[in-house]
Design brief:
Length: about 110
């Protein structure tokens, strides 16, 4: 068997894909999750904060993605599409976008001061 056939065999491709997917299947990220101040936050800390959002009245679902250097390093979703619904939220669920220009502008203004 030639070297090319060994590298391209279906078993080697599946094995490589499985090894590369382990951090995501385990709910962990490959890169550390950094806050704006440079400190690192763990996946379990983020999960805990997001899961505590369900204690807030009116919160039926939570979905968050953290992007660093153009890569998604964390994504989490939980809850139901609407209150009383049986449709679970996943990281692929599409939500209506909120207007984020006001909090971003306020953040920039406060950082300048």
């Amino acid at each position: 068997m030639t070297r090319r056939r060994i590298l391209m065999s279906p078993i080697s491709v599946l094995l490589a894909a499985a090894v590369l997917a382990i951090p995501f299947v385990a709910g962990q990220t490959v890169a550390p999750i950094k806050r704006l101040d440079g400190t690192v936050v763990s996946v379990s800390e983020l999960d805990s904060v997001l899961n505590s959002a369900f204690a807030i009245p009116g919160v039926a679902a939570v979905s968050v993605a953290v992007v660093q250097n153009g890569r998604i390093v964390y994504d989490h979703a939980g809850g139901f599409l609407t209150a009383g619904s049986q449709v679970r939220v996943t990281p692929q669920t599409v939500f209506r976008a909120a207007s984020l220009s006001k909090p971003v502008f306020a953040y920039v203004v406060l950082k300048q001061g």
